[in-house]
Design goal:
The complex is a heterodimer of chains A (175) and B (440).
Chain A lengths: L19 E2 L2 E6 L2 E5 L5 H10 L4 E9 L17 E9 L4 E9 L5 E3 L9 H11 L2 E3 L39
Parallel strand pairs in A: 3-6, 7-8
Antiparallel strand pairs in A: 1-2, 2-3, 4-5, 5-6
Chain B lengths: L23 H6 L2 E2 L22 E6 L11 E7 L2 E8 L7 H5 L4 H8 L7 H16 L5 H29 L3 H22 L8 E2 L2 E2 L7 H24 L2 H7 L7 H6 L5 H5 L6 H4 L20 H25 L17 H6 L1 H12 L7 E9 L2 E9 L7 E5 L1 H5 L3 H5 L4 H11 L3 H5 L1
Parallel strand pairs in B: 1-4
Antiparallel strand pairs in B: 2-3, 3-4, 5-6, 7-8, 8-9
The chains are: A alpha/beta (175), B alpha+beta (440).
């Protein structure tokens, strides 16, 4: 059961007020709370989350949805090629919120969380390194896992993975 | 030396400032982090020594330094013997395991993730399996979950024992190295009995565990529970009460709770600052709610506190293990769901369908419904998370592991700032980074 189940168009059901968290659409899936801010509002939403008690940024990663564009998203969220996924925790309220930001493929840039959560620094570098998403305002956006002079971003779905072709040589007929 | 004057703290406000008061500005003003690309240092023109202003010097520690726990490289800016700024440089062990994970089926995925944080392999398997199970919406049988908890707690002890060993050696107590590894071997022998392997077990799998606990497991576990606490008391004698050890560790590498939170540090680092944050208690998973245990916290957030937190966490783990041994229920060790679980071995011998079923599961794998999920557990080093995206096929679309060592390394520059270069080794060791997990 996804939170964005299509509402039957004919039924004059009262329009359910979309749940908002600091101005971002909220969906729920398997008991997890997911906020979907727009790219412009992203840093502001994170700031709001931090000030409302989400004091620990536990994870930040990127996803490349190049070969899977039709994933379920709540109505009104325009899917982009990339997604930046941030998990924040509140150590006082003991709950967790996941934030998913859509990032278009032709302009893969998004605001940096460094000023809000300094602990996201290495994780943003990792997302930049492996997926090529640029975080604007990051103090040191360089490669972190791959070598300095590496070309390409390996976790992108169109990154060519080196393969050794398997050759099935015709065995000499024994009889 | 009394507790207060070793840090020179006044008895000020005991409450934490709000989290927003500790922003990047403050941390940057405090310095600590060396913002300098790794590239230019590699130029032969300005190799190693680079005079920034007047008297400071940048030296590289590692990646082949014996006390950097693998292949961690630190660029350290020094003023005489005082560390000004530090930059951890990682990636020397990067093997693209997240990319590999996209090519493996969900059953094969565990063999991949278990190699990340190689001192706590069972936690990696556990968090990955829990994420897959959450996507599949299957409930593993109670015995499987209790078995997972039992082995994970044993793994926590064995991982902290390695910390004891290496931390002891890094500050000069070389005999600790031998003692820590000796005790750990006892736990690894039990793991070998369960899974057939000492490390990288692939024992916890989506749907349960690979095999039931071996005959006589209760005696083995209780023997460990009886043996380890006595050894921990010996460590107390050897290290905890030792004036030389105090001198090396107390007041060294201090970090405040606000800084630790801001820098996303979790686990013993965060707890050593006095903030009781343990996912087992605060966001309970599995059956930890039914168990009685204490969350160990420190006070000063220094190297000694991080040592003491880990030492006492082992005692708590032993306490948890004793409770698990009493509570272990009978029953299935894996879920009886034909979509996920292969048929039992003897059915394969007598039934063609069972053979086909077995073959399909291990070649094609099982399909997982579309969706994305983040699951986290408390590993020996902090929050270990798994973010899993499925597109409905038999392989994960994206598999991301949030490794605690990776995030914890960010607090290293703050800890090292203002300390002596000789203390750097003690501080690195107290963070307890596992480079396999950092680089993945």
């Amino acid at each position: 059961m996804t939170a964005d189940a299509p509402v039957d168009g004919d039924a004059p059901a009262p329009e359910p007020q979309p749940e908002l968290l600091h101005g971002a659409l909220v969906s729920r899936w398997r008991g997890q709370v997911i906020a979907h801010p727009t790219r412009d509002a992203y840093v502001q939403v994170m700031k709001g989350l931090r000030d409302s008690g989400f004091d620990l940024c536990s994870d930040l990663c990127g996803v490349d949805y190049l070969t899977h564009p039709g994933r379920p998203l709540p109505g009104g969220v325009e899917p982009g090629r990339f997604e930046v996924v941030v998990n924040v925790v509140s150590t006082t309220q003991r709950r967790r919120v996941r934030v998913r930001v859509q990032v278009p493929g032709d302009d893969a840039r998004v605001g940096s969380l460094f000023a809000v959560y300094p602990g996201s620094e290495a994780m943003e570098r990792e997302a930049f390194d492996l997926l090529g998403i640029r975080f604007e305002g990051h103090p040191d956006l360089t490669r972190i896992l791959m070598p300095e002079d590496w070309e390409g971003h390996p976790l992108r779905k169109d990154y060519p993975v080196g393969r050794v072709p398997v050759q099935f040589k015709a065995a000499a007929a024994t009889r | 030396m009394s507790a207060t004057d070793r840090l020179g703290t006044s008895e000020g406000a005991q409450e934490m400032a709000s989290r927003s008061a500790t922003g990047a500005d403050e941390l940057d003003r405090e310095g600590g982090v060396l913002r300098m690309p790794e590239g230019p240092v590699l130029d032969p023109g300005d190799l190693i020594v680079e005079v920034v202003e007047d008297e400071t010097m940048i030296i590289n520690m590692g990646p082949q330094h014996p006390s950097t726990h693998g292949v961690l490289r630190l660029m350290i800016e020094l003023d005489g013997e005082t560390v000004l700024r530090t930059k951890p440089v990682i990636g020397y062990l990067h093997t693209g395991m997240e990319k590999t994970g996209e090519e493996l089926t969900y059953l094969q995925g565990c063999t991949n993730v278990t190699r990340m944080d190689y001192l706590a392999p069972l936690f990696n398997e556990c968090v990955f399996s829990m994420a897959v199970e959450q996507l599949l919406e299957i409930e593993v049988p109670p015995r499987a979950t209790w078995t997972r908890m039992l082995l994970c707690e044993l793994n926590r002890v064995s991982s902290h024992l390695v910390f004891m060993a290496t931390n002891g050696m890094d500050v000069g107590a070389v005999s600790m190295m031998i003692y820590g590894f000796r005790e750990r071997e006892m736990i690894l022998a039990f793991f070998e009995k369960c899974s057939g392997l000492r490390l990288n077990h692939d024992y916890i799998r989506p749907g349960g565990v690979a095999a039931d606990l071996p005959d006589g497991w209760r005696d083995d576990v209780l023997a460990i529970c009886d043996y380890i606490p006595g050894r921990l008391d010996q460590y107390d004698t050897l290290l905890t009460g030792q004036p030389i050890f105090h001198e090396r560790t107390q007041g060294v590498g201090v970090i405040t709770p606000e800084q630790a939170l801001a820098l996303s540090a979790t686990g013993p680092i965060l707890r050593s600052t006095g903030l009781a944050w343990d996912l087992r208690r605060d966001l309970p998973y599995q059956y930890y709610e039914q168990l009685e245990f204490d969350v160990i916290v420190g006070t000063y957030g220094d190297t000694f506190d991080r040592y003491a937190v880990r030492l006492n966490e082992m005692r708590e783990s032993i306490r948890i293990i004793r409770q698990i041994v009493d509570l272990m229920p009978p029953g299935n060790y894996r879920v009886q769901d034909k979509k996920v679980t292969p048929p039992p071995r003897r059915r394969i011998n007598e039934s063609m369908e069972a053979l086909i079923h077995h073959f399909k599961l291990f070649t094609e794998g099982f399909r997982v419904p579309e969706g994305e999920v983040y699951v986290s557990i408390e590993s020996p080093r902090g929050e270990l998370g798994c973010y899993l995206v499925s597109d409905g096929s038999a392989r994960p679309y994206r598999m991301h592991i949030r490794d605690p060592s990776f995030a914890n390394l960010q607090s290293l520059p703050t800890m090292m700032r203002g300390g002596f270069i000789a203390d750097a080794v003690a501080v690195i060791s107290s963070v307890d980074p596992v480079m396999g997990g950092v680089d993945r």
